[in-house]
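Researcher: Please translate sequence to structure tokens.
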Amino acid sequence: MLRSSVASRWAFAAPKVADVMASISSDPSSAPAGAGSSLAPSSVGLGLTVASKDAVLKEIALRIAAAGALDVGAVLDDLRAREALGSTGVGAGIAIPHARFSSITRPIGAFVRLAKPVEFEAIDGAPVDLVFGLLTPVHCGNAHLQALARISRALRTPGLAATLRAAPDAVSLHALVAPILDAGAAC
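Model: Translation complete:
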């Protein structure tokens, strides 16, 4: 119910956002199997003040570790290792730090909106203020790449980034982001 009301409330900001939200919520095959969302409400933060890319990774690791009862150091190490291969800054102020993780059985995500953008070595050179974090089980195979592609496509929907930047509170952000992450995180 909340997803529908938030999606329609933000529809004025970008008509195509409502289309994305409707397609995600109407496709039952896109939801992950098992209980609950891949994104816990406590895994969403807004207005965070951090000074560096590493501080962003630490924040994402803390939120993912808390949601999955995982060791934060191990999560951070895996996110840093992936980031060392190349920046997960996809452009337009968005980053999707991610890793495969051996001790989980379902995808776990986090989302933060930063108070001020930080340098992230993004593909377009722009600083980042919207950050999706994603851990997927090692056994997910290509589903990990499919999840990242689906999240990236959703974020490139005209107006969605602006809608995320304008969301007034964490509850609204969760309602917007959870269906995107759930649709993109099935394995």
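Researcher: Any highlights?
Model: The radius of gyration is 15 Å.
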